[in-house]
Design goal:
Elements: E1 2-8, H1 13-20, H2 22-31, H3 37-40, E2 43-47, E3 52-57, E4 70-77, H4 79-83, E5 90-97, E6 100-103, E7 112-115, H5 119-132, E8 135-151, E9 159-173, H6 176-185, E10 198-202
Antiparallel strand pairs: 1-3, 1-4, 2-3, 5-9, 5-10, 6-7, 8-9
Helix pairs in contact: 1-2
Length: 203
C-alpha cells in the first residue's frame, strides 16, 4: 500500500472544482492510476484547512498524470508497516466516515442510506465495523461533522451527498487478516468520495 500527499493550488480553476464537487475530485484521483477505483484500491482524504489531499492506494500513482491544480508532495510505501501488523497491536486512529443504516423506500427497489442521528448510534456503528474488520475500539471521541457533495457524471441533476463525522481514538488489532481488509479497502460508504480512509498513528 502507498500513501501519497498532494497539495491543491486554490488559484487553479480545476482545483476549485475538485473542492466543490466530489465526483470531479474522484475522477482526478483515478486519473493517476489508469484503472478503476476497485483495481487501484484508491481512497482519499482532504484536509480543507491546509488544502492537502492524502491518497491511500494499492498501486503507486503515476506522477506524470497528476491533474492540473495538484502538486505531489511525496509518496511512501507502507509494505513494511503492513507486514509488521500484529494481533494485540494498538494504534491511535483517525477516521472520517459516514455512519448510516439502509432504510427501505416505498415503491422503490433500492433502499436509501440514512445518517445515524445520535452519537450513541454512531458509536455502536463504529464498534460493529470494528467487529467486522478485526479491531476493538479502546478509546474514541467524535469531532465535527463534514459534508461531501457533488453531481453524478451521467446525470448532472442527481446529487451525491454524504454527511460524515470524524472518529479519533485508540484501537487494538484482534484479527490481522480482517484488519488489513478494512485498512486497505476503507470503512463505510462513500469510499470513492473522500470517506472511509482509516489513518493510523503509533501510540
Amino acid at each position: 500500500m502507498y500513501l501519497s500527499k498532494m497539495h491543491l493550488d486554490i488559484r487553479n480553476i480545476y482545483a476549485k472544482k475538485c473542492l466543490r464537487d466530489c465526483q470531479i475530485m474522484h475522477r482526478s484521483i483515478q486519473h493517476m492510476f489508469h484503472s478503476s477505483r476497485q483495481e487501484s484500491g484508491a481512497l482519499y482524504r482532504i484536509n480543507p484547512q491546509r488544502l492537502d489531499v492524502y491518497v491511500w492506494s494499492a498501486e503507486k500513482p503515476d506522477c506524470d498524470s497528476i491533474p492540473a491544480g495538484m502538486k505531489m508532495i511525496g509518496c511512501r510505501d507502507f509494505s513494511e508497516i503492513e507486514a509488521g501488523l500484529q494481533e494485540g497491536g494498538c494504534y491511535r486512529f483517525n477516521l472520517l466516515a459516514s455512519p448510516c443504516k439502509k432504510v427501505p423506500q416505498e415503491g422503490k427497489k433500492n433502499s436509501r442510506r440514512r445518517f445515524l442521528k445520535t452519537i450513541e448510534e454512531r458509536m455502536k456503528w463504529l464498534r460493529n465495523k470494528g467487529g467486522q474488520y478485526g479491531f476493538s475500539v479502546l478509546q474514541v471521541q467524535e469531532s465535527h461533522e463534514s459534508m461531501t457533495q457533488g453531481l453524478h457524471d451521467k446525470d448532472d441533476t442527481q446529487e451525491i451527498f454524504y454527511k460524515g463525522v470524524i472518529f479519533q481514538g485508540i484501537l487494538r488489532i484482534e484479527d490481522v487478516a480482517l484488519f488489513k481488509k478494512g485498512w486497505q479497502n476503507g470503512i463505510g460508504p462513500g469510499k470513492a468520495y473522500g470517506q472511509g480512509m482509516l489513518i493510523l498513528y503509533s501510540v
